[in-house]
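Example (one chain per record):
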Amino acid sequence: MSAAKLRTATAEILSRTASEVSGAISEETVSKRGPDADSGFGSTSASASAYDAALRLLGVRARSRSELLKRLQDKDFPAEEVHSVMERLERQHLLDDNDFAQQWVRSRHLHSGKGRTALRHELRNKGVDQAIIEDALSQVDDEAEHDRAADLLRRKAQRLGPDDLAERADRDRHTRRLVAMLVRRGYSPSLALGLVKTEIDRLRE
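Predicted structure:
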């Protein structure tokens, strides 16, 4: 999702004039007069409310189509208005699962140290199509995953020294802890165990 496009769309909220606010108040007044009153503002107001809510959600962070749809539905906006807003966001290129998945993988792998298994699970939970997920994950190859896991491991194990690993029981305990940490981050058990054994041996020297 383009940050510039999101800023432009969000500006629609911030740049509303006093006359627009007055129009919203007038609408509320008209609605109280009963079914015989002019109600021409109704559809526009409902649409703007759903659209504003969507922009605010996207302003916090990028979201998948399924994720944003559920959030708007949870806010009890009319189904037709939600559908209209979703189409509008897609036309504006503010809602794109391909772009979302690519950004998610780059960010979570680089900044949170997540491995492909965890990233795949996260994107599935956000309702992203499997083909889109696999395409996004292709940017993280075996070497990149190995290097990121090794870097994360070194940071976690940096306080350990030869004295902490002198006894077999202590080495086993730290090995289990570090392997479990990497597996929770989404790295395969075999990769985690190999890296931890190498790191333990290095720290004992």
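Caption: Confidence is low (pLDDT under 50) at residues 13-47.
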